[in-house]
Design a protein that fits this description.
This is Cons domain protein. It comes from Escherichia coli. The protein is mostly helical. The longest helix has 24 residues. The chain has 1 helix and no strands. The N and C termini lie far apart (32 Å).
């Protein structure tokens, strides 16, 4: 179900988002949000 999906992939998605935010803040990626 949805909860199983969230438990399995939620943390990975969070890590991906945090990685992207860090990359943006450090100037690795040149894009505006």
């Amino acid at each position: 179900g949805v909860k199983d999906f969230e438990e399995k992939h939620g943390s990975q998605l969070l890590l991906l988002i945090r990685f992207l935010m860090h990359a943006r803040n450090s100037g690795v990626l040149k894009w505006k949000a």
